[in-house]
Structures are given as structure tokens and as C-alpha cells.
């Protein structure tokens, strides 16, 4: 059914870079055989899954939507993907993304854009836009994305689906192509909070992954959290976020509506402050490019990636391979990272960003003295049109509500809260929980549905 849905809809949506009918039918046949033999079925048996194309899945290419990795065959399967397959999921394909996950629109894919299923003239958000669009279009029930600064939560908001970034370390990064290693986190997209909870249980089943030293043991109690009674619990609202420049009135009203819905369910609204959050975007665009520069150094045409033919010298081979393998945004990030880490400059920006990181992390920790979860917009506006935002710094503002969580490490979830009154497009509200209390995202998220 998922392959049929892709056949019917993906010419228009273009969520996929590769569709994998053989892998899908093989996995589905295994489920059928187990059922016929009367064996117990795993929890997600037969559930169609899309995998962001920065995650290795043996038998597929992992391109990161880049010419650099156009022909790169996954040598093994990433832990996050393997766990979804162990839970019974059927992999139907690799989802489009911004090149190397740099972006908020999926328009920087080297191969093709992805269209928002609600209005194909618009972007699905990014960088996990293919994953979000595949779920929104009904092509798959679940998808995996990665979130370094908002790349799950912002496209979930633009595409009208649920998307969750758990706490840094909750899900293994082994086998996921690194962007910012201290910021990257994998998480699921689904149509409902319960679907996302079931995917989270699958992702954390088996405990910490010895192949990712930052991964932690997280108990699989997400699905159980769906029915939690939130009466008497406290929801923090950040007044400065609700009055921010750039927040559109329709998104503000939709998020205020979500706050009232939580109140109606018995929660108490409290005001909290995050005084250093103004520094989040600036800190992110120092830390993120610095880490990206060091992670992407391996794509030199020798160890990995596109190799320019007929070069006379080694230096020419590596610089021409990089010049022709990477797109504009990937180059911009790496040039920025190289500059920021150069001597003399390093102390001024990188250290300052690390100090801001500590202050932002402490702000969140303090906020949770007063609140059990925080509620805020996921993105300042609804989905924009392809090509509408051409200035990179304007594009960076798409993540004004999501970036600080990657800096602090906490988990967040986007839950659709209706259509914008002016645009008629989906609006998502974002819930934020204390570190490693991600089951609260499920509890409060379910209360918003
Ligand atoms: N849009 C942000 C960026 O361009 C976040 C991307 C992400 O989370 N991968 O860096």
C-alpha cells in the first residue's frame, strides 16, 4: 500500500530520493511468514518507514542529498534504522533533505526540491523535509529525521505532522552522517503523538549503543505516557517568545489556543524567562559550522566522496573534488567554520559561543524549577514558497524557536494545532521537557490532539 501511495503521489511531492521496493517487499514477506507461522510479531510489524538520506541503510545509497555522495553505498545500517527494522518496520525508501542537513526548506538538495503536500508551491520545511512530507502525504506511517537546529520540529510544523527530537544522547547517532556532533539528534515523524511514541520505544529498545559513546540508556516508556493525566502539572510560557519580532499573528494565536487547551485539561500556566535565549542563533551559527567544518573534512575525494578526474596534483584533486561536490550552502558553512576555528579568531567567537551555550543550558534548567514542560511556537510562520527566502540569514531565522534546544540538549516535540487563520496552512506548537524527561513530551503532546 505504501509503494502504491508513493507511486500515486510522489511525482507531485518528491519526498523520496530512492524508493526501495525490493527491501520493502523482503521485509514485508518476513512479517507475513512470521504471521503465517504463528510467531509473535514485533511491535511495529509491517509499518512502512521512510529514512532520511543521511542515515545508512545497507542496500541503499546514503547521499545526504549531495553530489559529493551521489554514488555512496551504505556499508552497514545505522543503529537507529536497525532498531526500527528490528521492531518490524518495512523500509520503503530514503527521504530527501537539505544537502548535508544544512537548511530549513529542503530546497538545497542537489537532486530536486520536495513539495509541501498541503500546497505544492511551498516547501515542506527542512532539513528533514522529505521525511515530513512523506508522512504528511500518507506515503508512509513513520519516518526518521535528524535535528541539529530544528530539522525535525520545523518541517513537522510546516507539514502538519508530529515530529520529535529527544534529548541529546537518547538515540544513537552511529551510522548517521555527522553535521554538528554535539547538536545532532535522531527522532521520528508520525501522524499522531502515539505513533511517535511507539517509534521512540523502538529507537531506545536495547538501551545504550556501544558504538555511540554519547548514547544513554533510556527506558522504553513512551507509549505508556500517552494516557498520562496532566491535571495539576505546570506549563511554562515564555512571554518574550510570544512577543518576538518575526512571529506571525496567526501562529501566535494558534499557540495561545494550545495553551488554553492544556489549561482546559487541568494544567496550570506559569510564566518563565529564558534571559540568554537571544544569543542562541548566534551561538549556533558558530558551534554548528565549526563542527560541520571538522566533520566534512573527510569528503576529500580520497577517503570519501566525489573524486574529480584527471587532476595533475593531489592538492588540485582535493580542492576540485570539494569545489564540484558541494553545493553553495555546504561551502558557506565550511568556510565559516574554517574561519571561526582559525587562530586569533577562535578565542573571540568559539569560546564566546561555548560560554553562551552554558548560559542557555542553565536558563532551561532553571525554567524547569517552575514548570514541568514549556510551550512555544515550533516555527515563527507557516510554510513559505519555494524561492521566497533567498537571504541565508533570513533562512536561519526559521529556526529561532528550535535552535536553543540543540544547544542545551533537551528534547522537544512539534504537535499540529490546526491551520493558520490567514494562510490556511498547518501550524505546530512545540513542547519542551527537561533533559531525559522526554516522556512528558508524549504526555502533553497527546493532550493537545
Ligand atoms: N536549519 C538549521 C540549519 O540550517 C538546522 C538544520 C538541522 O537541524 N539539521 O543549520
UniProtKB/TrEMBL annotation:
Keywords: ATP-binding, Ligase, Nucleotide-binding, Protein biosynthesis. Gene3D superfamilies: Amidase signature (AS) domain. It is an enzyme of class 6 (ligase). The keyword Secreted does not apply. GO terms for biological process: translation. It catalyses: L-glutamyl-tRNA(Gln) + L-glutamine + ATP + H2O = L-glutaminyl-tRNA(Gln) + L-glutamate + ADP + phosphate + H(+). One of its GO terms (cellular component) is glutamyl-tRNA(Gln) amidotransferase complex. Coiled coil: none annotated. Its EC number is 6.3.5.7. Residues 1-441 form the Amidase domain. GO terms for molecular function: ATP binding; glutaminyl-tRNA synthase (glutamine-hydrolyzing) activity. It holds the Pfam family Amidase. The active site is at residues 52, 127, 151. InterPro entries: Amidase, Amidase_CS, Amidase_dom, AS_sf, GatA. Transmembrane segments: none annotated. NCBIfam families: gatA. Allows the formation of correctly charged Gln-tRNA(Gln) through the transamidation of misacylated Glu-tRNA(Gln) in organisms which lack glutaminyl-tRNA synthetase. The reaction takes place in the presence of glutamine and ATP through an activated gamma-phospho-Glu-tRNA(Gln). Heterotrimer of A, B and C subunits. Belongs to the amidase family. GatA subfamily. This is Glutamyl-tRNA(Gln) amidotransferase subunit A. It comes from [Collinsella] massiliensis.
